[in-house]
Amino acid sequence: TINQESYSNINFKSFYINSGFTRTNIINNLNKPEAYSSLDGLFLAKENEFIDNNIIVNHNSKHTFSKVLYKGILDDNSNAIFNGLVNVPKDSNQIDSDQKNHNILLSETAKINSNPKLKISCDDVKCAHGSTIGNLDKDALFYLRSRGIDLEKSKQILLKSFINEVIDDIKSSKYKKYINEQVESFFNE
User: Fold this and answer.
1) Would you say the pTM of this structure is higher than 0.85?
2) CB environment 65-74: b (16+ within 10 A), e (fewer)
3) Whole-angstrom Cα distance, residue 56 to residue 118?
């Protein structure tokens, strides 16, 4: 549970790469005006791995801001769940919230259950939520292949560009390098 006061700023990132069976519960309470939170996640799963992300953002005060972005890549028989809730109680006006979950399935047996939700009990808010589940773009794969790039390298290029939005703004070069090494290992196993 994260409790935020006025002018607090949270930039939280979670990464699940070859993590087996994982369940995450995050409750983010924006309790005072001008609190800002950014909750980002990346999950990469293969074989029979299972990842369950549950995120609740409570805008308990007016003038609060939140962003949730979770991206997943699932292969083999892996399964994942994304449950996201942005809660805006009565009198929490003038909030801005954006919640997204985007996923790529690399096999016909991989599964994701994505449930982004908004619960808004007042007016004068800006809230958005969305979810996508799909496969690699065949036209983009064809384009890369037509440039002489082999199939596996073409897939890696597209998948890395998909997840870079979560990785690119990591401030620590040491941590960013570590995450990129783990991603590379996942793709090359």
Assistant:
1) yes
2) bbbbbbbbbb
3) 10
Output phi, psi for 32, to 5 deg: -135, 160
pLDDT tens, residue by residue, 132-172: 999 999 999 999 999 999 999 999 999 999 999 999 989 99
Q: d(Cα 78, Cα 157) in Å, to the nearest integer?
A: 22
In contact, 47 and 16? CB cutoff 8 Å = no
How crowded is residue 47: how many other Cβ atoms within 10 Å of its Cβ?
11
Q: Whole-angstrom Cα distance, residue 114 to residue 102?
A: 9
Q: Is 33 helix (H, G, I), strand (E, B) or coil?
A: coil
Contacts of 174 (CB under 8 A, 6+ apart): none
Cβ pair 106, 77 in contact under 8 A: no
The answer to whether 39 and 9 are in contact (CB under 8 A) is no
In the chain, DSSP finds a helix count (H) and a strand count (E) of: 3, 10
Packing angle of the helix pair 151-167, 138-146 (nearest 10 deg) = 120
